[in-house]
Description:
Elements (H helix, E strand, L loop, with lengths): L3 H18 L10 H5 L1 H13 L5 H12 L5 H12 L9 H51 L4 H67 L1
Amino acid sequence: MGCGPDVGRLIALADQLIQQHHPPTQPTKGHMEHTATVDDLWARVVRLYEEGWIDEVTFNRFRALADRGVLRPVDVAVLQYETQRRAQQRRPSREEKTLRQLRARRARLVTVQQRSQETLARLMAHLQTLEHRIAAKEAAARDALPDNEAEARRYLEEKVALTAARDKLRQQIQALEADLTTLEDVILQIDTQMAALDAALHRVEVHRVAHEQVGT
């Protein structure tokens, strides 16, 4: 039972998307040391999870801290100390580690997806506001034209500026919608690979139990 190169490429693609949509936060003065180490701390947590030292509940708890930017060195130090006490436990198989890697990437991608959806909703609301403003400027120009051509021209110039802003916003929305489609596709591919690995690991466990029963 192997993981294959496709899984490696999928993990690399997931990492690329995560980096693209979740760049390191620029630290502010006074929080520089803390903020600059959050990504490194999170990488250590991910490594512990992928190597089988922490469970999914613990992983998700630390992921929430990392997403909020409040993951501290002491948190990871305590976690590593606890895992060292369990160092004699069975090491996970290659397939189990790959499954954990996929789960870790999926969790981050879902967070990116949720944030992108929230951003898209805000952009769509702003677009609607711009559309209303553009319509209002056009109506105002039309009403002012019979009596005040200069005022009508001013309304039309304001409409042109708002229209340019609207067109740029539409481009941003289209790009974000394309990104969301890509995220959905990658998450679906990860789900497919995870299901295949789950099934393979289940078969191994069934064969192991059956062998033990025959042996007794």
